[in-house]
Design brief:
heterodimer; A: alpha+beta; six-stranded antiparallel beta sheet; 39 strands; B: alpha+beta; seven-stranded mixed beta sheet; 42% helix; binds zinc ion
Chain lengths: 802, 349
């Protein structure tokens, strides 16, 4: 809410300038997002009296003689449709500055001298949303009887010399969404008394309450009060009233509507005015809407009502969406004479949901949603009636019709001074604390350490001792609190073991030259279950923002492929990404999260390369990177099995098994996927994904040091001719098994298949390294082992050994 | 010809030949020719019989002198040739050291994780445990236990991604608080934890909104933890991240799970508090929210709020990264553009 500094002065003595006040309020109560001063940047804008106005033939222009308080009237050419003789208008003189820092100069329009400009409100900085409709497409005309003379600056009369404090409230401080509430808050902050006047209404007419029956569901509207005024003359509001509204961001409409809005600004109680002709049948009800009911709102939006919307009806059809906006069918019209005023308390949650449902939040609905002062219903109703007597010549009929009237018990909160001091870390005395509550106008009772605070209804946010801590803390000043560190028993900080393991993996991959990516967990249903060996039921959100972010991923690789596509589209094709994060599923009826890591590579091994060593990243490069990771983690007994996984190349992908258990996969992203993703077309992407939880089960627990070998190792090479279908892994397994425990290293040194070999055969060459840690190996022993290997290969794999 | 004359000629011719030898092979030939077993000097010695006995001594002396001279000059020539060879080899091996090196890909940490790791290190040093909770959270832990009533706006389908009526993508890391509070045994000492992780809100992605981002929750709980302790802790966090010369201020705020609640602002690092577009002319930038844990949260977790109390804070890690590194679009953290990600390496600590 925009709170007027000048209006505040009606309630509190302000000896602090607006910006300093804003800073104090921000630090003590409610954040002041901004202090607006509408006159800022404007110059030489004065009131002018149009003495004579002639339409220029064949144009839309008017030639005006305007009294601007100088010896002679000045001539201004004005194109506004509503300029006319005898109007009091806003004149930008020669040398004036208007909105947008635009300078106005004397000039000629169609050869005729114009000594300035007659302005509309938008031209001097008003937002379109607050300009009264009749001035929206033309110049502003001061209402008759406005207290302003030709030549006088317009800023004061238009409220532009004011400072407007933008109260950016938190949901608990809706009590400041009114001038009275803001005044109480400001008074407490600057320690000044606040004067809020009570209302004394004497009705002019007879009792009207028997002419209407109001059937109100008190659950929907705990309080529902009505008053009736007659003899109303609908006119434009006086300028003082209009300025207060537009300075608060509300568009003036007519005196009746403006009064209801003004009372809302003043008291925080939303008001509504009905044309009394709405209730011809003498019936009114407050109920939930029925299915299929519709209502056209004042803003001409037709809404299909929901059975959770509260409506006010004329006994038959809805005439208002309660707490949100009136219906067009009950609107106060220029010919309205009898008006029914409503002040009510509606269920905040239902109002909020209505406003949200129909995308129609209003000043009223936002107040009901956050809560209003239950003690202000009567006062608001009476003040509105009184103002209509003044500004609309209304006759106030006697009696308030109370459709419902639920009371609220006064709130008493008990606490102790020692509790307040303990939580705040202060040493305030009872007198100091009581003085702070006095500033809030809260009554207190003290009995030794005990403190009882009577909380007025205007502060419905305060119900428990912790709330009192806040009141004391903020008014004492958070700036005045000591700043210290908790002095507690020592605790040991750190990570859980699994967290340490994940951090090790991340650091390793980063050191290996991979860039850390961060992707969205939500993806499309199709992508969520790609790159997944055992697809589980998915975790899918109910109302996704779009279908490509609707399901929680079961793999990380999909995010990295997205990243690759994004980068490829920007000609960045040398990529090495890793991501560590979770995957999510709904297996076995519960929601599960698994920590994974994935990598994705594309391009070349070397990044800048004038030596033309253009080795592309391929399966074996990536596998080497992965093998190094496994070595660094101390993982052994790893097996790769050719396997098909959705999204991966069917003949270039392997499942990874540790001690026989599946932990992830490695391979190339399928052509089927890269060919359909335009930027990735014809690219080769390689990567792997590991389930870190699974992996963590096989980590070595501790390291026992061994001395470096003291005896020499012996190496032998071996060439094996096998069927092409035979995998290296099976050959190696056979060698290992036969070679015995002196075999410490087995490496592939050559792979050949081609014209020099029989069809369907391939040749694999290995180097075997033998070592006895306790003695020097003999040739005989090694020869014996090599012979055993040869026999094993020949018999088990039908290989021929050379 | 007189033997002495011959010797004199040999000396002159020999020195010329040594000088003229262009490589070690030729030099060796010269050596054999001059001082070898069948060389010129040996020849002269063989001719000594023709010399009168009284002059033999003189001639013998001269022969020795010439041999010494030849050997000395041969050694020098051999050395010079070797030196020249080395120089030639080195010249041939010369490379252009200004050409660039051959580089493998270079790793980098994601900027949001830079902030996360930096903060975790800070808190671990202060004795906080790092705790991780589920991202698919129950309504119970995310909201009910955290004192957000059933009709609280955050519990709207519009605001939070619900999976079903009971399960949702957590919109805040606060659920970790509730889980830890339920489990903590205060007889084992105070509770100090931070809980970092991903959170999700039903916001359309734009420059300042992201449906996914990272938060870090902090919680300190014991018998005597005050708002002064909170203030000191928050100031330390702010100064650690944004510099010791930053001013800070606490403002009253509102969160359902803390009471009192505050937000902390730091003086704008762009304009130093004078007011600019980054701080929306206020001179201050909001960096975090915090407060004293609401008694209802404690009671919900079965903790006596008359005995125990403490503070909690929530840090927006993406927001910190945005502020610290001057990022103007939060989506940059999630598109994984390598050109963007490559610029933060020097921030690693
Ligand atoms: Zn700034």
């Amino acid at each position: 809410m925009l709170v007027s500094y000048n209006w505040l002065k009606d309630f509190v003595k302000l000896q602090v300038e607006p910006h300093a006040l804003a800073e104090k309020i921000t630090r003590t109560g409610v954040e002041i997002a901004e202090v607006k001063h509408p006159a800022t940047g404007l110059k030489k804008l004065v009131a002018g009296h149009v003495l004579n106005c002639i339409k220029l033939e064949g144009t839309h222009l008017h030639q005006c003689m305007v009294d601007v308080g100088e010896a002679e009237p000045i001539q201004i050419i004005c194109g506004a449709p509503n300029v006319a003789t005898d109007e009091m208008v806003i004149v930008a003189l020669h040398g004036a500055r208007i909105a947008g820092n635009e300078k106005i100069k004397r000039g000629k329009i169609r050869g005729i001298v114009s000594n300035g400009m007659i302005c509309g409100l938008q031209e001097i900085g008003f937002s379109d949303s607050v300009v009264p409709v009749k001035y929206r497409d033309g110049i502003f005309v001061f209402p008759k009887g406005s207290n302003i003379q030709p030549g006088e600056d317009v800023y004061h009369a238009l409220g532009m010399d004011d400072y407007l404090l933008d109260f950016d409230i938190t949901p608990n401080r809706a009590d400041t969404l009114s001038m009275e509430g803001a005044a109480y808050e400001v008074g407490a902050i600057i320690d000044q008394p606040v004067k809020v006047e009570p209302v004394n209404l004497k009705a002019d007419g007879s009792d009207w309450t028997s002419t209407l029956t109001a059937a109100v569901d008190a659950k929907l509207a705990p309080k529902f009060y009505l008053r009736k005024v007659t003899g109303v003359k609908i006119v434009e509001s006086p300028l003082w009233l209009q300025t207060r509204l537009w300075n608060a961001g509300i568009r003036p409409v007519n005196n009746v509507v403006d009064v209801t809005n003004y009372i809302m600004l003043l008291t925080g109680q939303p008001m509504h005015a009905y044309d009394a002709r709405t209730f011809k049948t003498g019936k009114l009800s407050v109920r939930l809407a029925k299915p299929d009911e519709t209502l056209t709102l004042l803003n001409e939006k037709e809404v299909a009502l929901d059975p959770a919307d509260i409506v006010i009806t004329d006994g038959n059809q809805p005439v208002m969406l309660a707490g949100v906006m009136g219906g067009l069918n009950s609107e106060v019209m220029p010919d309205s004479h009898e008006v029914i005023l409503e002040a009510a308390v509606f269920d905040g949650t239902l109002v909020r949901k209505s406003a949200l449902r129909h995308a129609n939040r209003t000043e009223a609905s936002s107040r009901f949603e956050k809560g209003i002062n239950w003690d202000n219903t009567q006062k608001a109703l009476d003040m509105a009636a009184l103002l209509l007597r003044n500004e609309a010549s209304a006759t106030i009929l006697d009696g308030v019709l109370k459709g419902s009237d639920t009371g609220r018990k006064p709130v008493m909160v008990k606490t102790t001074f020692s509790y307040l001091n303990k939580v705040l870390g202060t040493t305030l005395t009872a007198d100091q604390v009581v003085a702070l509550f006095n500033r809030l106008n809260f009554e207190t009772q003290v009995a030794r350490d005990q403190l009882t605070v009577a909380v007025p209804a205007r502060r419905w946010d305060i119900t428990i001792p912790a709330h009192l801590v806040e009141e004391v803390g903020r008014l004492y000043g958070y700036d005045n609190l000591k700043s210290k560190q908790p002095l507690l028993a020592e605790t040991q900080g750190g990570y859980a073991n699994f967290e340490l393991f994940m951090r090790h993996v991340k650091h390793f991959l980063q050191g290996q030259g991979l860039m850390e990516a961060l992707s969205y967990s939500l993806t499309s249903k199709a992508r969520a279950t790609l790159f997944t060996k055992a697809v589980q039921p998915v975790a899918e959100v109910k109302m996704p923002l779009n279908s490509s972010r609707s399901v929680m991923r079961q793999n990380l690789l999909t995010g990295l492929v997205d990243a690759a596509s994004y980068n490829f589209a920007r000609k960045e094709t040398e990529l090495a990404f890793f991501e560590q994060g979770r995957t999510y599923d709904h297996a076995d009826g519960q929601f599960n999260e698994h920590e994974h890591v994935a990598t994705l590579y594309s391009g070349h091994v070397y990044r800048n390369n004038w030596e033309h060593d253009e080795a592309p990243v391929d399966f074996y490069f990536v596998k080497g990177q992965l093998e190094n990771l496994f070595t660094a983690l101390g993982l052994t007994d790893i097996e790769y099995r050719a396997e098909e996984i959705a999204g991966m190349h069917p003949t270039r992908t392997a499942g990874i098994y540790v001690q026989g258990d599946y932990v992830g996969f490695i391979g190339m992203v399928s052509h089927a996927l890269t060919q359909t993703e335009k930027p990735l077309r014809n690219s080769e992407l390689y990567g792997y994904e590991l389930d870190l939880e699974q992996l963590s089960h096989y980590l070595p627990t501790s390291t026992q040091a061994k001395p470096a070998p003291k005896f020499p190792a012996m190496s032998r090479d071996l060439s094996v001719l096998v069927d092409q279908s035979q995998s290296n892994q099976s050959v190696m397994a056979a060698i290992r098994q036969a070679a015995g425990h002196y075999l410490v290293k087995l490496s592939v040194i050559d792979v050949y298949q081609g014209e020099h070999l029989a069809a369907g055969k391939k040749s694999l060459a290995y180097q075997l390294t033998f070592l006895n840690e306790k003695a020097t190996l003999t040739d005989d022993l090694v020869n014996e082992k090599m012979a055993a290997v040869t026999t094993a290969l020949e018999t088990k794999l039908q290989a021929s050994v050379r | 010809m007189d033997l002495l004359e011959k010797l004199d000629q040999l000396r002159g011719r020999g020195l010329e030949k040594i000088n003229a030898a262009a490589d070690t092979q030729k030099l060796n030939d010269v050596r054999v020719e001059l001082v070898g077993k069948k060389g010129a000097l040996t020849e002269i010695l063989h001719a000594m019989r023709e010399v009168a006995p009284e002059r033999r001594r003189q001639v013998g002396q001269l022969v020795n002198e010439v041999r010494d001279l030849f050997n000395e000059q041969l050694a020098q020539a051999r050395y010079d040739l070797a030196q020249a060879l080395v120089a030639q080899k080195l010249a041939a091996e010369k490379i252009d050291v200004t050409l660039p090196g051959k580089r493998l890909s270079l790793g980098a940490k994601h900027p949001v994780y830079l902030i996360l790791d930096d903060l975790e290190a800070l808190f671990i040093g202060l004795g906080y445990q790092v705790v991780q909770g589920p991202e698919i959270e129950t309504d119970h832990y995310c909201f009910e236990m955290m004192n957000l009533p059933k009709d609280h706006p955050a519990r709207d389908m519009q605001e939070t991604f619900y999976i079903d009526n009971e399960n949702l993508l957590r919109s805040q890391t606060s659920g970790d608080q509730a889980r830890v509070l339920e489990k903590h045994d205060f007889s084992q000492g105070p509770l100090k934890m931070v809980g970092p992780g991903k959170v999700y809100r039903r916001d359309d992605d734009d420059a300042t909104h992201s449906h996914q981002f990272m938060q870090m929750e902090g919680l300190v709980m014991d018998r005597n933890v005050s708002m002064s302790d909170l203030k000191g802790t928050l100031e330390m966090i702010a100064k650690h991240l944004f510099g010791a010369d930053r001013e800070t201020r606490l403002r009253p705020s509102y969160f359902p799970f803390t009471e009192p609640s505050v937000e902390m602002d730091v003086s704008c690092f762009n304009c130093d508090g004078k007011g600019c577009s980054i701080c929306k002319e206020t001179g201050w930038i909001e960096v975090l929210g915090a407060g004293m844990v609401h008694p209802n949260v404690l009671e919900n977790a079965g903790i006596d709020s008359n005995v125990y109390g403490g503070f909690a804070f929530g840090l927006g890690l993406d927001r910190f990264a945005i502020l610290k590194y001057g990022v103007d679009d939060i989506r940059d953290f999630y598109t994984n553009d390598v050109r963007f990600l490559a610029q933060f390496r020097q921030e690693e600590k």
